[in-house]
Amino acid sequence: HLATSLPLPPETDRVRPRIDMIVFMIDIKSKYSLKNVEASLAHVDVNFFLGKVCFLVTGVGRVNYCSVEMNAIWNLGEVYCSPVLFCELELEGTRVATAQRLLRMLEICAGHVPGVSALAFGSLMRNSAYV
């Protein structure tokens, strides 16, 4: 399910499926994108920051057109104890690899991988090199 911002509309509360993971997308070419994510973060339950949130930064292949400072993005990851993933959605191979990575993260967050908790996985992701 996709949403352009949070909070989600209350009228869909009764039909909304369980939320296992939240991926905040930030377009590196848009300051509005970062501001929207920052505003939306206030509407996320603190329990999601225990391994069920990540930041996906798109447009990284166009560093010349950057409107968002990288320090602001790294800071989000640190403040919210959440991994930061970088990708270029215009490249099919990178797009497929990113989708597969997000799917695996979702499987872990939803509890479908025995022996691996979202909290442990999130901690591992934060302590490794972000790609």
Report on the architecture of this protein.
With 131 residues, the protein is an alpha/beta fold. The protein has one domain: 3-Layer(aba) Sandwich (Rossmann fold). It contains 4 helices and 3 strands; from the N terminus they run E-H-E-H-E-H-H. A 3-stranded parallel beta sheet has the order 1-2-3, with helices on both faces. It is globular. It starts with 21 loop residues before the first strand and ends in a 5-residue tail after the last helix. It is found in: Chromosome, Centromere; Nucleus. Keywords: Centromere, Chromosome, Nucleus. It comes from Pandion haliaetus.
Features:
single chain, 131 residues, alpha/beta, Rossmann fold, three-stranded parallel sheet, 4 helices, 3 strands, globular, centromere, chromosome
Instruction: Give a short account of the largest sheet.
Output: 3 strands, parallel
User: Which structural category do the helix and sheet elements fall into?
Assistant: alpha/beta
CATH topology: Rossmann fold
Mean pLDDT: 84
Overall body shape: globular
Quick summary:
The protein has one domain: 3-Layer(aba) Sandwich (Rossmann fold). 37% of the residues lie in helices and 12% in strands.
Topology:
Elements: E1 22-27, H1 31-41, E2 53-58, H2 70-79, E3 84-87, H3 92-109, H4 118-126
Parallel strand pairs: 1-2, 2-3
